[in-house]
Design goal:
The protein has 16 helices and nine strands. By secondary structure, it is an alpha+beta fold.
Length: about 400
């Protein structure tokens, strides 16, 4: 019987087939954690088959069709740029999707970006934009053609500006200049969920995803930063989580967490250096489980809660408690305080519902403060606290 590689549960169901060049791969779904995975016997089945040689071989000079010219171009380019590699990009058919007259320039541009410190994933995102412009009918050698193509794209202005920025870097590589158009972007106010909705979502997801959501809730880290947290970054004695691999040029930081999160981290298996899997896998599992939970509880508001909206919630709550913008900036790891202002939406919270609690002793007061309650007043020797639902 198959077991889930994520939670080791035996409650796995067949969940359709995935076809790779006509060859079927059985997919399975774990009913406990919602993790989808392929049949582990697949790699063993194709070991001695001709399909293995056709679909998993890499580009090499022995191939005579389709990719030989591309390899020759890459070889000449790599001779000029010693030490630069494209890794998986160079061993795929990615560059063949560009016109033949642009392939040498695209490959050289990619190598230049890698030599300048850009990651391979960052290079891919740039190439995806250039490829998208070509598919829309733009001529990369003609800036006016790109301007007309971007103007006709039915996307948000922020996406248009991103495409224009990528093309501007490509033009700079070619030694050309242009007058870049600029589209005005309107700032939307994201959905700030209630804490009761977050707790409902955390309690209804699998063990791994619940721990991820609780980590974002208490630290305000991005999903990519949470996915990079290693076991050595967690001080279980002092209950401190270190964000040592920040994204988007943010600062590294240390954040004090609650005993609840420490207990949730202790319950996870130590299968790798990092605590969690890759962010794309975590995001995929989260959206599946969120949709299932919203349908089960008949609560469509749960579908509005995204991984990044929890970061917005954390920033808004920290500012509401402290009224200190510099404190929120340090929690989020921002270098520019203007980025922090975007997250502190100054949402009016006075009309929302609260949990109330009272304390008579110092010990009870400390417990309520650790649980997130804030002091309101004192009546007849009894301290009154409240906490937003």
């Amino acid at each position: 019987m198959l077991v889930c590689p994520e939670c080791s549960s035996s409650r796995t169901w067949k969940d359709g087939l995935r076809y790779v060049q006509g060859y079927p791969i059985q997919r399975h779904l774990c009913r406990d954690c919602g993790y989808r995975f392929s049949d582990p016997e697949f790699s063993r089945k194709i070991t001695n088959s001709s399909y293995d040689k056709q679909c998993f071989r890499q580009i090499c000079v022995t191939q005579t069709k389709g990719t030989k010219n591309l390899v020759e171009v890459e070889t000449r380019t790599e001779t000029r740029l010693a030490g630069a590699t494209l890794n998986t990009l160079a061993t795929s058919n990615f560059f063949t999707e560009f016109p033949k007259n642009l392939q040498p320039q695209i490959i050289t541009y990619s190598l230049k970006r890698l030599n300048q410190g850009c990651t391979e994933q960052g290079v891919k995102s740039y190439l995806y934009c250039l490829r998208n412009l070509i598919r829309k009918g733009a001529d990369l050698n003609s800036p006016e053609s790109v301007k007309a193509t971007v103007a006709k794209m039915a996307v948000a202005n922020r996406t248009k500006n991103y495409h224009l920025g990528v093309y501007e870097s490509f033009l700079k590589f070619l030694g050309k200049t242009w007058q870049k158009p600029k589209y005005t972007c309107s700032q939307k106010i994201p959905n700030i969920p209630l804490e009761s909705e977050l707790n409902l979502l955390i309690g209804g997801c699998s063990k791994t995803i619940s721990t991820v959501l609780q980590t974002i809730k208490e630290t305000g880290a991005r999903i990519g930063e949470v996915a990079r947290i290693r076991w050595e970054d967690v001080d279980f004695e002092r209950r401190i989580v270190s964000i040592n691999y920040p994204e988007k040029g943010s600062r590294a930081r240390q954040i004090k967490v609650t005993p609840k999160l420490i207990a949730m981290l202790h319950s996870l298996p130590r299968k790798r250096k990092t605590i969690f899997a890759h962010k794309s896998q975590l995001s995929h599992q989260f959206y599946i489980q969120r949709k299932r939970l919203a349908h089960k509880l008949k609560n469509p508001r749960l579908k509005l809660i995204g991984l990044h909206s929890i970061r917005h919630w954390h920033a808004t709550m920290e500012y509401h408690k402290t009224k200190d913008l510099l404190h929120v900036q340090q929690r989020l790891g921002h270098k520019n305080i203007q980025n922090t202002i975007i997250y502190t939406h100054l949402v009016s919270l006075e009309s929302d519902e609260y949990h109330t609690a009272t304390a008579k002793t110092v010990k009870e007061t400390c417990k309520l403060i650790e649980a997130g309650f804030e002091y309101v007043c004192e009546t007849n020797g009894v301290q009154v606290f409240r906490k937003r639902k």
